[in-house]
Amino acid sequence: MSKLFIGGLAWHTTDESLHDGFERYGRIEEATVVKDRDTNRSRGFGFIKFSNESEAEAAIEAMNNQEFDGRMIRVDKAANSAGPRNGGSYNRGGGGGDRSGSGWGNQQSNFQSSRGYS
């Protein structure tokens, strides 16, 4: 199975129209337009899962930088996302005595003590 990223989609593109526009390149297991969870409107990109690699490559070759549904789209292999893109950690450092949950460590208390504040 091979997953493609489709960027630059028109706001009116649906899962069905995305599927229909790419099915000529092979068997599609899933076609999804990503939507905003609050408004349920398209975010302008989506994903297509092809059943095999050669079909996905054919879709990239044929559809990348082409007009689809009234917009120029970008088609590329989707990144494997198994978590946060910053290496797996949301913590920005620190620790020590920081209990604020901000992940910035003792920077504020260090600033205060270096300025003579207590």
From TrEMBL:
The keyword RNA-binding applies. SMART domains: RRM (SM00360). InterPro entries: Nucleotide-bd_a/b_plait_sf (IPR012677), RBD_domain_sf (IPR035979), RRM_dom (IPR000504), SLIRP/GR-RBP-like (IPR052462). Keywords: RNA-binding. Residues 90-104 have a biased composition (Gly residues). Residues 74-118 are annotated as: Disordered. This is RRM domain-containing protein. The lineage of its organism: Eukaryota, Fungi, Dikarya, Ascomycota, Pezizomycotina. The keyword RNA-binding applies. Residues 2-80 form the RRM domain. It comes from the Eukaryota.
